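Tokens for chain A. Residues wanted.
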């Protein structure tokens, strides 16, 4: 703290600037409190003090949080201050609330975000960064290239839909920003849509505040869902990282323990080898003495073995003859059994064919009986129909006679009526001619007005239909992008989890293989020792049978060997117990792996639930689409119905005019002339 205060005063002296008392007092307070926060909020800073502070910030390594809210900064002052923070490596939080930053401020902030690599939080509330679109686009370019900022506050900055689209482009390229506050701006529908499209590609934004921006509720819900998906993804990634860290530690500890156990086993094995070497030296000396006596008796034993081999050869020949005779008997028995089986199969086939023929005959007889009954019923029905038709013909003849009589009566009455109507029409023709001209004029006027109204309504309905089709196309594109992004995320998460599982399983399998190889080596060594011991026992037993004088020495050696064998068995059992303990530990590791697999399966289930939710959302969108199509269809039906009604009205009017003209005296006069 003292270093920053001293540098500030020194730079003021060098630049010929009077140090500002409020700044010096604030530096004194921060020094007394031993805090790493510099709070200059509410103090109006001149351009000279801003230039001095910028030079001090270039050399500063103490303050991690700087608050410059409501400092009435000018454009030059903000430019100098922010230029001093370009290459600062200690400030992590910067507050510039209520300084009325405009075009130059936005440009310098963009450069700051592009150069600075330590700033994590930036507060720009109550400024005017969104008024100039070009400068705000430069600010967004800096945000896109930044890799450290996690929190950005842009409340009340007069950001419109153009600024929101620039922010959306920046969010597509940025991968570190987690919290973004855009409350009380003028983003609107178009800005909300552009932000929604950007969040479909950005996976780092967890919290997004958009209150007071005139954005529809459905877009706000979609934005909340996308941020929720990002937060869930971030949470799962953190959990997986923590679990992998814990598992790596446990695996490292297990490696160390197993290395220690392996070293201890190797030491015990070396000791056993030394003891076995000593015992083998003592026994080899005794065995050399015994072999000298055995070589003398081998000659007698060899003659006996030759006689035994001759007798064994004769026995083998007799056994081969007996085996050949037995094979011939077995072949005869097998041939007899095959002949019996063939005869039984032929009998069964004949019985089955006879049963099938009988069944077919029964079925054909039943079908013929059924067809005869059907034909009889049809004949009876035809006879009934003939009788009913004859009765109907008789009744029709009676009705024809009655109808001819009635028609004749009606003709006479109609002629009387026609004469009376002709008289009346001659009197009414004179009155109808005057009225006809007036009605024709009124009808023509009414037709023209109705045609104009119908044309205007048709144009309006066509415009509505075009708007609905555009909205449908946009919703379809958004749904397709959401589906593809969700599937890509699922595929990436699954591949990562599978690769991690495969690596862990392969490492554990390699450890098991190494331990099994060591086990097999130990077992081979033990088996070799046992074989050598069994050979020695066989030699000693032969010598005990053949030599009576050497029995005492062999018994003593056997006792010594049995004691050594017991010791070796005890050592081998102890080694087996240790190996079984290691195997138990490996099985415990395997159970832990199974638990991890269960957790992974649970995560996959959660991912499946998320995919089901996405599918439900897609189904809802498709239902909305179908409802809109149904509305369009109903409107088209209404338009068609209106056209048909107007056509019917026109036909009615035309028929009325024709009837009126035909009923006039001109029509009567023209008809007899024709």
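Reply:
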């Amino acid at each position: 703290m003292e270093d920053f205060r001293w540098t500030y005063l020194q730079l003021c002296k060098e630049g010929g600037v009077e140090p500002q008392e409020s700044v010096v007092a604030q530096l004194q307070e921060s020094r007394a409190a031993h805090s790493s926060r510099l709070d200059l909020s509410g103090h109006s800073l001149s351009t000279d003090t801003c230039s001095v502070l910028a030079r001090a910030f270039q050399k500063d390594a103490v303050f991690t949080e700087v608050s410059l809210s409501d400092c009435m900064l000018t454009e030059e002052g903000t430019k100098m201050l922010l230029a001093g923070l370009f290459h600062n490596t200690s400030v992590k939080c910067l507050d510039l609330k209520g300084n009325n930053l405009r075009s130059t401020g936005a440009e310098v902030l963009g450069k700051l975000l592009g150069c600075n690599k330590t700033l994590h939080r930036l507060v720009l509330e109550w400024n005017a960064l969104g008024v100039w679109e070009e400068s705000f686009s430069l600010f967004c370019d800096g945000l896109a290239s930044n890799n450290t900022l996690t929190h950005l506050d842009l409340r009340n900055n007069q950001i419109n839909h153009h600024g929101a689209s620039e922010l959306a482009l920046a969010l597509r390229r940025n991968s570190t920003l987690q919290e973004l506050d855009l409350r009380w701006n003028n983003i609107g529908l178009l800005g909300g849509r552009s932000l929604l499209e950007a969040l479909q590609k950005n996976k780092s934004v967890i919290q997004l505040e958009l209150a007071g921006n005139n954005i529809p509720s459905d877009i706000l819900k979609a934005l909340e869902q996308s941020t929720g998906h990002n937060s869930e993804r971030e949470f799962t990634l953190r959990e997986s990282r923590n679990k992998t860290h814990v598992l790596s530690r446990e695996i490292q500890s297990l490696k160390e323990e197993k290395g220690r156990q392996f070293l201890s086993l190797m030491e015990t094995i070396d000791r056993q080898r030394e003891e076995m070497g000593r015992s083998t030296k003592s026994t080899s000396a005794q065995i050399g003495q015994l072999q000298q006596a055995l070589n003398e008796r081998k000659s007698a034993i060899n003659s006996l073995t030759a006689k035994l081999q001759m007798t064994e050869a004769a026995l083998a020949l007799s056994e081969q003859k007996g085996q050949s005779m037995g094979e011939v008997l077995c072949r005869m028995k097998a041939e007899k059994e095959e002949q019996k089986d063939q005869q039984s199969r032929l009998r069964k086939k004949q019985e089955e064919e006879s049963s099938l023929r009988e069944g077919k005959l029964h079925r054909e007889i039943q079908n013929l009986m059924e067809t005869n009954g059907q034909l009889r019923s049809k004949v009876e029905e035809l006879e009934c129909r003939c009788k009913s038709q004859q009765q109907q013909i008789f009744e029709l003849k009676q009705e024809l006679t009655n109808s001819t009589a009635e028609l004749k009566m009606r003709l006479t009455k109609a002629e009387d009526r026609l004469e009376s109507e002709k008289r009346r029409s001659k009197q009414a023709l004179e009155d109808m001619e005057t009225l006809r001209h007036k009605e024709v004029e009124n009808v023509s006027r009414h037709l023209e007005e109705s045609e104009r109204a119908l044309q205007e309504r048709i144009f309006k309905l066509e415009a509505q239909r075009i708007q609905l089709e555009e909205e449908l196309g946009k919703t379809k594109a958004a749904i397709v992008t959401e589906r593809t992004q969700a599937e890509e995320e699922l595929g990436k998460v699954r591949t990562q989890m599978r690769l991690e599982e495969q690596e862990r399983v392969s490492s554990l399998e390699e450890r098991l293989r190494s331990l099994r190889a060591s086990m097999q080596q130990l077992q081979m060594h033990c088996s070799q020792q046992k074989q050598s011991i069994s050979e020695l026992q066989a030699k000693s037993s032969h010598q005990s049978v053949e030599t009576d004088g050497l029995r005492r020495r062999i018994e003593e050696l056997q006792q010594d060997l049995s004691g050594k064998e017991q010791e070796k068995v005890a050592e081998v059992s102890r080694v087996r117990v240790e190996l079984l303990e290691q195997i138990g530990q490996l099985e415990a590791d395997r159970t832990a792996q199974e638990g991890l697999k269960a957790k992974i399966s649970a995560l996959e289930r959660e991912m499946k639930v998320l995919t089901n939710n996405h599918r439900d959302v897609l189904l809802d969108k498709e239902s909305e689409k179908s409802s809109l199509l149904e509305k369009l269809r109903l409107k088209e039906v209404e338009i068609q119905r209106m056209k048909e009604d107007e056509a019917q009205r026109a036909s009615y009017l035309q028929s009325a005019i024709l009837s009126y003209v035909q009923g006039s005296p001109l029509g009567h006069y023209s008809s007899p002339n024709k």
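The domain at 1-257 is CATH 3.80.10.10 (Leucine-rich repeat, LRR (right-handed beta-alpha superhelix)). Residues 103 and 135 are 5 Å apart (CA to CA).
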